[in-house]
Amino acid sequence: MYKVYIDKGAINLDRRWKKIAAKDSEIIIFEDYSDLILKLSLNEKNIIFLSDFKSENDCYEKIRILRGKFPLSVVNIVTNAKYKTGELKRVGLNELVNPSKIKRAMIVLQQSFDIADSYYNQNYVHVDDSDITIDKKNINIVSVIGASGGIGKTTIATNLAASYAEFGLKVCLVDFSLQFGDVGLFTNIKPKFTVYDLAVNNLEANPNLNLFIEHVNSNFFVLPAPVLPEQADYINRTMATRMIKVLSMAFDVIIFDTPAVINDLVLELYKLSQQLILVTTKDLNSLKNTKLQLDILTKLKLNEKVKLVINKHDDPRHDVDNNVVRKMFGLNNVALIPFDEIVVENSIKKGEPFIYSYPSEEVADSIRSLMSNVRYNCIVGEYKVEQK
Question: Per-residue pLDDT tens for 23-55?
């Protein structure tokens, strides 16, 4: 089904035009650009004939926004003006149409149907509504979790994703701290689309990576938290499951940065994950909360998925032996991430994972070791563990 959006007064809709447009399509007349934005659907085959612009720069900007927000849209401009077609096509224009040349407009419309099909077929893979079971054989789903704020979950999740990408795997880092997530800040990404858009607005399809999900490099993609905190309330467990299935079709690895709170939605994510990276520091409050969280996971029979990460393990402010922490939680598989305040703070300021900006530092090597352990589910001996 195509939706043909026509600027009011832009084209004379004679019988020939209506006959072509009526085939498997719906004609929608819009009053102005704002009205068009309200009417457009994210995952529909949209064919647009726009004439509401004040200048060539205004035209350029409106095409750029339309193609950015609605990547399946075929945008045509209706005008008598002599605009620089090449510049406009660089931001997504399909064709520039003279309003007096109705035959040419009909040809452009017919071509737009084919282009819309091409966009849709290349960028979307339908998900079967009757079955949202996730095949975990070819996908690694990892949740980075923690019972307290400020313990380095986002830092570890971001750099773990970067390490996977460095290894040559296609990875998506999903910010599931839905109300106050910082993944966009840590990767220097200003989101165009977010978890909300994929979970709520686009459940029927799997978006092309380059159009829907922001990328740090050719293997590292990011799906940020919703722009508005209140949007988190609209995401439920079924939506989250479907979103993960959609992502699993496109990536080798999905890493979730999760909030400290455990609610039904977060619990569903824990169940869907193959491994839970439980982050703590040796701050007494963090240790207490981590023990409580691990007790909850044990009651839910999820503790076998847990790998403990002691972040800033050599922080001189907290003189607790690493093996004491390990025994406290009853976990042998423990990763130690060193304290390197300068490297971590500089990487956050740059919006670049320290795996890339400080690749030779010990903290970067420790994340690579963590990645190897998570990927291959290694025994303790292959993991950096301090023992007596």
Answer: 678 888 888 888 888 888 766 788 898 887 888
Contact, 45 vs 116, CB < 8 A? yes
- Whether 55 is covered by a domain: the verdict is yes
pLDDT of residue 110: 83
Q: Are 241 and 347 within one domain?
A: yes
Using CA atoms, how far apart are residues 272 and 136, in angstroms rounded to an integer?
9
From residue 172, alpha-carbon distances to 159, 175, 222, 295, 307 in Å are: 12, 10, 5, 29, 20
Q: How many residues are recorded in the chain?
A: 388
Domain-embedded: residue 170: yes
Q: How many structural domains does the chain have?
A: 2
Mean pLDDT estimate for the chain: 81
Residue 22 burial (CB count, 10 A): 11
Residue 102 located in a structural domain = yes
Domain shared by 200 and 316, yes or no: yes
Q: Following CA atoms 129, 132, 138, 139 in sequence, which dihedral angle do they give, to the nearest 10 degrees? A: 110
Q: Which stretches in the chain have pLDDT values below 70?
A: 9, 11-23, 42-43, 68-69, 71, 120-138, 200-212, 377-388
- Domain match, 271 and 182 both: yes
- The parent domain of residue 274 ranges over 140-382
Tell me: do 27 and 68 sit in the same domain: yes
Choose the final residue of a domain: 96, 123, 150: 123
Whether residues 12 and 115 share a domain: the answer is: yes
Look at residues 227, 195, 188, 186 and name the one whose alpha carbon lies nearest to residue 213: 195
163-203 tens-digit pLDDT: 999 988 999 999 999 988 999 899 998 877 788 877 765 54
Q: Report yes or no: 20 and 106 within 8 Å, Cβ to Cβ.
A: yes
CA pair distance 14, 156, nearest whole angstrom: 61
